[in-house]
């Protein structure tokens, strides 16, 4: 009886402090974006929604954010897979088991500032190349910060996500007994590469897929890193929404709320897909 009451209390607190604020914030954003609340509440209108689509920034921003997140994840996962498979024992004890946690202690803004100091034309890397006579002037150093391809943002996200996926894969290797499956595959005359690409890697990716999707959502909606290292055009979704909300032009504020609503819908769709993946597993 006491356990049931305790569970009801937990559900009530979760509803009160997690679900209701989220629903209230989303509802306010929806009402503001259609002109029913806020400074410009002159009645229902679709003007603000039509404007964000007619300008073309929102679609470009969503595609750009998705591209940065996908490329960052592909690089991180591709690096973490061989490292965790080959050195999974080393990450359970010894020096590496402590050093791998170091990048995880960096907040996003600190990591972004760190790469900003390294990758700008006047940064550490360009000065080092100049001292080594590999470039004759700092201007010859390529644009890696605020560039079109988001190299600085991708490098920062890889720096932050690589240790996370290494630790995730090491834990999966241990709990799912991947090494034993590799040995079992070898007894059926499977080569080393066959056991790797048909047994180990598929199992790791299948078990890690929910976490990969969640990290995609995290990078897609990141704010600090693209704010410091990204371009003004195209912009990441979070930067575009905040810029609209902070503009002095009051007509841009409903557009910022509309972008926030679109982002929430996109994340909700991904979470539904994530739950389906989890239920299948």
User: Under CATH, the topology of one domain is which?
Assistant: MetI-like fold
Q: What is the chain-wise order of helices and strands?
A: HHHHHHHHHHHH
Distance between the termini: 33 Å
Helix content: over 70%
Low-confidence stretches: none
CATH-defined superfamily of one domain? MetI-like
Describe the structure.
The chain is built from 12 helices and no strands. The model has no long low-confidence stretch (mean pLDDT 85). Helix 8 (178-187) runs antiparallel to helix 9 (192-220) and helix 11 (237-245) runs antiparallel to helix 12. The chain has a domain at 34-98 and 153-280: Orthogonal Bundle (MetI-like fold), CATH 1.10.3720. By secondary structure, the protein is mostly helical. The chain is globular.
Topology:
Elements: H1 2-33, H2 47-55, H3 57-87, H4 96-99, H5 108-119, H6 124-131, H7 151-175, H8 178-187, H9 192-220, H10 224-229, H11 237-245, H12 252-280
Helix pairs in contact: 1-12, 2-12, 3-7, 3-9, 5-7, 7-9, 8-9, 9-12, 11-12
């Amino acid at each position: 009886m006491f356990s049931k009451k305790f569970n009801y209390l937990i559900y009530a607190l979760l509803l009160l402090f997690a679900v209701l604020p989220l629903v209230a914030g989303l509802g306010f954003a929806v009402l503001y974006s259609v002109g029913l609340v806020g400074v410009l509440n002159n009645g229902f209108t679709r003007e603000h929604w039509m404007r964000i689509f007619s300008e073309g920034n929102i679609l470009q921003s969503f595609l750009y954010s998705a591209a940065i997140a996908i490329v960052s994840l592909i690089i991180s996962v591709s690096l973490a897979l061989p490292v965790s498979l080959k050195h999974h024992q080393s990450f359970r004890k010894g020096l590496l088991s402590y050093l791998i946690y170091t990048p995880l202690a960096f907040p996003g803004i600190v990591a972004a500032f760190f790469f900003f100091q390294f990758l700008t034309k006047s940064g550490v890397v360009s000065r080092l190349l100049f001292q080594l006579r590999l470039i004759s002037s700092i201007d010859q150093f390529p644009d890696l910060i605020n560039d079109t391809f988001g190299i600085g943002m991708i490098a920062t996200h890889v720096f932050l996500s690589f240790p996370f996926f290494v630790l995730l894969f090491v834990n999966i290797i241990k709990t799912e007994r991947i090494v034993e499956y590799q040995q079992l595959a070898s007894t059926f005359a499977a080569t080393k590469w066959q056991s790797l690409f048909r047994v180990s890697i598929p199992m790791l990716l299948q078990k890690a897929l929910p976490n990969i999707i969640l990290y995609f959502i995290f990078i897609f909606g990141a704010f600090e890193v693209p704010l410091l290292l990204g371009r003004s055009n195209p912009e990441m979704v979070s930067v575009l929404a905040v810029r609209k909300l902070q503009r002095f032009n009051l007509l841009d504020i409903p557009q910022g709320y509309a972008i926030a609503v679109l982002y929430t819908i996109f994340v909700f769709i991904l979470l539904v897909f994530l739950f389906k993946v989890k239920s299948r597993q």
